[in-house]
Amino acid sequence: MIKKLLLLFTLLICTAIWSQNHYLISGKVIHHATQKPLSYVVVTLQNSTLTQLTTTDGKFEIEVPFNGNQLLLLRSQGFKDLLIPLALATTKNINLGVLSLEENLVAEAQNSWISLQESDLSDDNSTSENTSSLLQSSRDAFLQAAAFNWGQARFRVRGLDNENANMLINGLVMNKIYDGRPQWSNWGGLNDVLRNQEFTIGTAPSPYSFGGILGTQAIFTRASMYRKGTRLSFSASNTNYSARSMVSYASGMSSSGWAFVVAAGKRYAKEAYFDGTTYDAESFFMSIEKKISTQHSLNFTGFFTPNQRGKNSPNTNEVTELSTEKYNSYWGWQNGEKRNARVKTVAEPVLMLNHYFKINEKTQLNSAVAYQFGKIANSNIDYQNANSPDPTYYRKLPSYYTSIYGSDQGEYSGDYLPNYEEAEKSKNTYLANSQIDWAAMYRANQNATVDSNGQITTYHPNKSHYVLYEDRVEDQLFTANSTLYSRFSDNCTFNGGLNFRKLQSHNFQYLTDLLGGSYFEDIDAFYTGTQSQSDLQNPNLQVKVGDRYGYNYNLNAIVFDAFTQFRFDYKNIDFYLAQTFSSTQYQREGFYQNGLYPTNSLGKSNSLIFENFGFKGGFTYKISGKQWLFANASHQTKAPALRNTFQNSRLNNSVVAAINNETLNSAELNYVFHAPKLKTRLTAFYSEIKNATQISFFYAEGIFDKGFSYNNTDAFVGQALTGLNKTNKGIELSFDYQLTATLKTTVAANYGKYIYDSNPNVKLTNDAQATITDANPVFDFGNSALKNYKLPGTPQQAYSLGIEYRDPHYWWIGANINYLDDMYIDIAPISRTNAFFKNPANGYTFPEATQERAHKLLSQEKLPAVTLVNFSAGKSWRLKSKYIGLFASVNNILNSKYKTGGFEQSRNANFRELNQDVSSETPSFGSKYYYGFGRTYFANLTLSF
């Protein structure tokens, strides 16, 4: 009832102030340097759908059906935006005269460079991925520093994962249902045709979506919005790829109402920055628009960006000290070539059709449908009845021999018994064999034929002990969307939208290479009897290349959401109110009858339905024409991600116990000052995420005791955290000052405090204990004392000081120095439970588990602070109608070696195991770390005509 009254009250306000005034705004846009007309400049009235393109002689006319103070935005690729204030009162026809746009050399260079930041930095596209791609559309000094200067250290704005931001292309949501995060590589390498963007940060209002607590990025590919012409670019770098080339062409709108844009690109590296990391990517894009009438237009967009990249491994300090920060354990030599065992392949084309319906001058309805399909594949080595092929496997490293303890003496720890002689042998062996031995795996999969002299003459295939496989995901996603914009009056606008998504995600293990063998047996060699069978309907299946095995299931999802938003604009104050509702349905469908879960793996699970809502609002107080004070706040609930809903979707239909919606609250307060020479923003922000769920898997030693009626204290387990709360708060500063006509300085700062704010419940699933009568072997380990530990994966302090010189003769040079601190590694929740302190042999607390020792062992590791110095320069030339641009940058000039993140290993799953390992000072299961780039360069040459 309250919602209905609020809606009625809003409509009554809007209706009461309805206005019928019409104004005709006209002008001519020229190039600042050449004084020639600029065509296809996008002319937009802010906070409306009123848009025009300049003609071939640079002219425009736009009819405005409301009065009051308005803002007219002129935008064109490669030029600085021009924002013109309008006071619409009695004069009906306003000619703005000649307006000149100045080339934006720095922005052009940054748009070329941003693709270097797009690569996934982790195996699962997860929280360690940076946010630079999200921020590339912003010109705020702080957000520019976050994207281009701090992104190399995995800085995340406000400490939030990118699942908390909505990513839209032509109004359609591009965030994956599986984990809520955008798959940036789905449109990587298409920089030149994805520059028409709008970006809101935090809970600021967006006309296209209710948005997330991090913000909304909206990309538009409507063909008529592109400036006519051809663009070629060539790049060289030593980061994620070595070389890149791109070409794009836009036709402009023809007299018959057709416009089209095409683009293609290639990125490649035989070996990128880290050892053994290959990169191979293509990009294809097409947008075609047909203007049916003054009211209707149809636009088809299609893009396909197949790409492959070799991953690099996180490493312990021991491994890095034996090698370098660039060391990567995932590759080995094969026939004189480096071959990476862990390659991520993404090939998911997107097809979308948009209908633009201009109902009248005040109302516009935009609708779209899209279909995305294809695959995401992550390769790895599978092995049975054989030694691990990982060269950094703990038994192959010196620490295995220098962290040995004798058997326990009653309830007390055994003696420390290091074997330094074997450790030295192990070190020498490792240094001589520090990469994957592909040849040895081929030999293990074959039988040798010997002659009468006992000499091997040939090899012939046998049952494979080692194979190469892919964890394959093949999605089919249908999306439909409609958004309505209406200007109810001079002071009130309405935005609303409906969005529908239906996903069928096929997940399976796919054999790609038998490595010289003849077949691979589809069993789990860690179990025996029927428990070892992946599919009881096809026992002991002999798998060959191209076959599915191991696991095979669908994850199905249906998501519906809607939002409404009202904005009110007055002379001194603006405010808005928005609300959203969503319904999410998940279901698993298993195609294998797994031997561990014969009654709970085949067929469909129960459907899970999550209903959610959200409200947000904010205001802007205009202190003067140069100063604004604005605040935003939101409260919303959200369905758990699909990946965190099922306990182990590869094996069974079981759902995480006590799974529920997440709750998200956010607030921010901003002060903005904009003057010709000085632009600054100061922001205080606060956000909290409550009742989150998190799933992980690991092998743990000494984790179970007799209280669980389980003799073997070691197990491979699935861990489910529920009731996980996080709090992020801090301040941001953006400062941009024009010292002279050619010299500018920028300052950006972030000071945050991002912490876990609850002690979540920990439940472990031990598949080995599954039986027909107990198809849900879940053990409750109680709460994990995570509260006040720091959130990992991002610097919580970041500072940047930059200076830039722009010469009137179209060259520029800039440098910045950056300091990043308060970076923490991810902690192991199992180590913070009460069960961690109990001896699995007798169930009693370890006598050495004193409070002082526990505090030292469980203190969260803080990574060293890092200082990064970057340099960039550019020059442009205009030869008649052609534009040539040259840009070059060097990042991390000082070649600082630094860690960008890491995580504790959970293998030492009780206090004694961890204490012995750490006390040896050469732990076998020490934390693993990711490293940032050292000194890198990027150079780009652009030709436009």
List keywords for this structure.
about 950 residues, mainly beta, 28-stranded antiparallel β-sheet, 10 helices, 50 strands, about 45% strand, globular
Query: How large a portion of the residues is in β-strands, by DSSP E?
Result: over 45%
How much is the average pLDDT?
Answer: 90
Count of DSSP H/I helices: 10
Q: What radius of gyration results from the CA coordinates?
A: 30 Å
Distance, first to last CA: 59 Å
**Poorly predicted regions:** 1-20, 112-137, 707-711
Morphology = globular
- How many E-type strands? 50
Helical amount among residues, as a percent range? Answer: under 10%
Secondary-structure-derived class: mainly beta
Structure overview:
This protein is 9% helix and 47% strand. It is mainly β. The strands form 9 sheets. The protein has a 28-stranded antiparallel beta sheet that branches. A 4-stranded antiparallel beta sheet has the order 3-2-5-6, with no helix packed on it. The model is unreliable at 1-20, 112-137 and 707-711 (pLDDT under 50).
